[in-house]
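FAQ
Q: What does a multi-component entry look like?
A: The components come first, one per line:
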Amino acid sequence: MAAKRWQRRKEDRSGEILEAALFCFSKKGFAATRMEDIARRAKIAKGTVYLYFDSKEAVFKALARGSMGARLEAVQALIAQYQGDTADLLALVITNIGEFARGSDRVILPRLMLAEAGNFPDLVKFWRLELLDRGLGILQSIIRRGVESGEFRDLPTEHVARLCIAPLMIVVIWRTTFAQFDKEPYDYQGLVAAHLQILLHGLSAGSDA
Amino acid sequence: MAAKRWQRRKEDRSGEILEAALFCFSKKGFAATRMEDIARRAKIAKGTVYLYFDSKEAVFKALARGSMGARLEAVQALIAQYQGDTADLLALVITNIGEFARGSDRVILPRLMLAEAGNFPDLVKFWRLELLDRGLGILQSIIRRGVESGEFRDLPTEHVARLCIAPLMIVVIWRTTFAQFDKEPYDYQGLVAAHLQILLHGLSAGSDA
Amino acid sequence: MAAKRWQRRKEDRSGEILEAALFCFSKKGFAATRMEDIARRAKIAKGTVYLYFDSKEAVFKALARGSMGARLEAVQALIAQYQGDTADLLALVITNIGEFARGSDRVILPRLMLAEAGNFPDLVKFWRLELLDRGLGILQSIIRRGVESGEFRDLPTEHVARLCIAPLMIVVIWRTTFAQFDKEPYDYQGLVAAHLQILLHGLSAGSDA
Amino acid sequence: MAAKRWQRRKEDRSGEILEAALFCFSKKGFAATRMEDIARRAKIAKGTVYLYFDSKEAVFKALARGSMGARLEAVQALIAQYQGDTADLLALVITNIGEFARGSDRVILPRLMLAEAGNFPDLVKFWRLELLDRGLGILQSIIRRGVESGEFRDLPTEHVARLCIAPLMIVVIWRTTFAQFDKEPYDYQGLVAAHLQILLHGLSAGSDA
DNA sequence: AATGAATGAGTATTCATTCAT
DNA sequence: AATGAATGAATACTCATTCAT
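Then the predicted structure of the entire assembly, as C-alpha cells:
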C-alpha cells in the first residue's frame, strides 16, 4: 500500500516509459512503433524497457488500462454530492467530459484503443466493461432521475446516454485525426455548447406541446 | 490431376482481392495482415496480388478510396429533388446514413481509416476533404435552409452538422468494436430514432417560448 | 485465312531473342536481367522465350557460346594464306582483332563472360579452351615463325602471345566499362598503333645491339 | 550450457564482415551471394550484418572502395624519392604492381568491380577517377620524364601508360578467371619479365636507327 | 539496474517458370 | 506457335527479445 521508498525510482521509470510509449503509439500506431523508439524517447536503453514490461504488448496494455478510470471516479463523486436540476447536472457532466475531450493530451488513449481494437480483444473488453458500461450506467441513472422528476421526456435511457456522449467522441476523433487539416482551429467548445442546447432542449418535457 | 490451378479471370480479380483485403484488414488491422492472408482469402497465390496492386499499401489505399463516395452522391441526389419540410428532409438523410451505418458491411471502412490514420496521412486528407467536408457541407446547407425558413433555431451550422452525424458514428464504432460483447443485440434503430426525436425537437424553433 | 506467309520462322526468333538478351545482359548483367526484359526487347511474350530456350541460363549459354568462334576462324584463314614478313602478319592480326575490339558491338560478350564467370564455370572452360587457348596458339605459332626466321628476338612465346592481346583486352574493358565517363572519346586506334610500334620494335631482333 | 552465443566484439566485426563478403562475392558474384552466406562465413547472425552495414549494396561498396588506394599511394611515394634511370623506375613500378597482381588475394577486388560494373555505376566512377585516372596519371608523368630526358621515344603518353598496365590486368583476369583450368601453374613472373623486356626495348630511343 | 550488441523468426516483394487459352 | 495470367520459391531486411557485460 504505502509506496516503498526504494521502489520510488522504479515507479518513476515505469511512468516515464508509459509516457514515451503513449507519445510513440499515438503518433505511429502500435505496430509501427519500435521498442527502440519508446526507449529513445524515454532516454533509456532498449533493454531497460524489458526490466519494467514483459513485452511491447504489455506496455500497450498497461497504458490502455491505466489512468482512464480515475476521471470516471471523479465524475461519479461529482454526481453523488450533487443537489439541483437534473438538466444542470447533465450539463455539468457533459461539460466536464467535454473539457477532457477537447483539452487533455490523454485523448489519444481512446483513439489508440479504437485503432488497435482488432489486435487486443481483451483490451476492448476491458474498455467496454470498466469504462463504457460504467460511464453509460452513470449517465443513464442521471437521465432516469430527470425522467422520474418530470424534467425530461420519457425516452429510452440506453440510447439517450449514448447520444450524450456521441458529440464528445466526435471531438476526440476530430482532434486526434482530422484537426491537422483544419485551416483555422475548430471551436470545440462551441460544439459542446450547441450539443447541450439541442440536447437539453430536445429532452425537456416542458417544451413539448 | 489437380483441379485447375490456373483460372484465368482477369475480370474481377481486383474486386475480389479488395473484398478479401477488406475482410482481413478489418479483422486484424493493416500491419498485422499478411499479403498471404489476403491471397489465401481471395483464393489466389501470393504473387497474384501483385499483378493487381503494387504493394500492400496500394491495396489499402484502393480500398479506402473506393466505394464511399457513391453513397454520398446518392444522398446528394436525394436532397436535390426534395420538396417539403426541412425537418423531414433532415430525418430522411439521417435515416439513410443510419441505415448504412447499422446495416452495411462497408462500415468497416471508416473504422479501418480511423485505425490506420497515423500510418496514412494522405488517406486521412482524402477522407477529410472528399468525404467529411463534402458531407458536412451538405448537412450544413440543409440546416441553413431550415433556419432560413424559420423551422430551426439559429444555431451555428458547422456544429449542428457534426451533431447530426455524431450518433451515426457511434453506431459505426459500436458495431465494429464493442458489439462483440453485447449480450443481446443493441437496438441501433432505436438509437437513431431517439437521436431524431431529440435533434429535431431540440432544433425546432416553434417549441422555444 | 491461311497461315501468314510472312510469319517469322523459328530460327529467326531464336536469333532475335539472343540479340535482345545480349542487349539486356550487357546492360544489367545476367542476374539483374528479367526474362520479361528480354521478351519485351524481342517484342514477344514472356512465355515465348521458353519455346526456344529452356531457361534464362540456357539463353545466356547459347549467347556466350555462339558467334565468337567465327572470327577466330577468319583470322586463322587469313594467316594460312599469308606470305610475307612475320611482323606484318602480326600487325595485320592485331589490327584485325583491334578493329573488332574497338568497333563491334559484340565486345560485350567477353565483358559478359568475365562478369558472370563465377556463376558459369563450364562457360569459362568453354571460353578458355575453345577461344583463348586456340587464339593464343595461333599467335604463338606466328611468333615462333618470327623467331625462327630471325625477325624476332627469342622470348617465351606463351608470354608474348598474351602481351599481343593484352592491350586489346584493355580496349574491350575500357569501352564496356569506363568509356561512359570519358569527357572526350578515347582514341582506341591510337592505342593499337602505339601498341604495335612498341611491340614490333620491342620484339625486333635487329634493333638489339 | 551452449557456447557463448553473444560474443561482443564490436572491435573488428566490420572488418570480418568485409572479409567474409569479399570471399562470397568473389566466389559467386554480388547477386548470387545471400546476406546469410556472408553472415555464416563471418560466423555471426544474419541481422548482425545490418548493425554494421545498411544493405548488401553498402557492404559491396565499402569493400570496393577500401584498401585499393593505399597501394597506389605506396607507389606514389616510391616514385617521389626516386633518383636514376626512368627505365629503371618504370620497371620498378611495373614490377611492384605486378607483385600485387600475381600475389595478393585482393586482386579479386578489380575482378569484382568489373563483374558488377553494370549494377554500380557510381562505383565504376569511383574506380575510374580515384584509381585509374590517378594511376595512369602517375605512369604518364614517368613516361613523359623519360621522353624529356631523351631515354624514350616520343609516343603518346596516354596510350603508353595503358600499355604498361595492360599485361598486369591480364594477370589479374587470368588468375581470377582462367587459372582454375591451368594444368601447370602459369608463370606470371615470366610474363611480367617479358613485358618489361619488350616494353623497355620498344620504348627505348637509342635502339632506333 | 542498466546497457546495447547480437540474435533469428517473420514478411513484403520479386521473378523464373508453367500452362490454360 | 504464341500468349500472359498465375504460381510460389527465394531472399533482403526489420525488429522484438535476449543476455553478457
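Q: Is there any commentary attached?
A: Sometimes. For this entry: Residues 34-36, 46-47, 50, 55-56 of chain A lie near DNA strand F (CB under 10 Å from a C1').
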